[in-house]
Write a structure and sequence with these properties.
Elements (H helix, E strand, L loop, with lengths): L1 E6 L3 H14 L8 E8 L2 E11 L5 E7 L6 H14 L4 E7 L3 H9 L3 E12 L2 E11 H8 L1
Helix pairs in contact: 2-4
């Protein structure tokens, strides 16, 4: 598996965001940057995506879709991009309350619960709460080595 990178300004970033949008049924609004993971060069299908939005200089928000492909390499790519390349101090993840798999995984990856955002996702008729988690650079150091 290898990684590809892009932004809303290039075709690679738009391709990754398109895969992400279809997988999670949520539109990606520019500006954004993205990492895609491709299984092999003979069949260039993007099997996982990380979309980064709301960059503030000190923080960036990440949205992940990596079904069955979550690995140390993926974690190092995501953390390396946020903490080494962008020089952020923290990484934020907002997770729908019903996404129990990700809610169980985030603390094992060093993320800490921060707050609840009521009616954050979904349509006005069917709002879904989101839990906000943060990862500081200090808590990510073991993954960055």
């Amino acid at each position: 598996m290898y990684s590809i990178y892009g932004t809303y300004e290039d075709s690679v970033g738009q391709l990754i965001a398109g895969y992400f949008s279809r997988a999670v049924d949520r539109k990606v609004i520019p500006p954004y940057s993205a990492i895609g993971w491709v299984e092999n060069k003979d069949s260039p299908i993007i099997v996982g995506q990380a979309v980064f939005v709301d960059y503030t200089g000190s923080n960036i928000e990440v949205h992940l879709n990596i079904p069955g492909k979550f690995s140390r390499r993926v974690i190092r790519n995501v953390y390396g991009y946020a903490f080494k390349q962008l020089k952020c101090n923290r990484l934020t993840a907002k997770v729908a309350l019903h996404n129990q798999n990700l809610l169980q995984l985030l603390p094992r990856l060093g993320f800490e619960y921060e707050c609840l955002m009521q009616a954050y996702y979904g349509e006005p008729e069917a709002p879904v709460d989101a839990l906000v988690y943060k990862l500081t650079k200090n808590n990510a150091l073991k993954w960055l080595q």
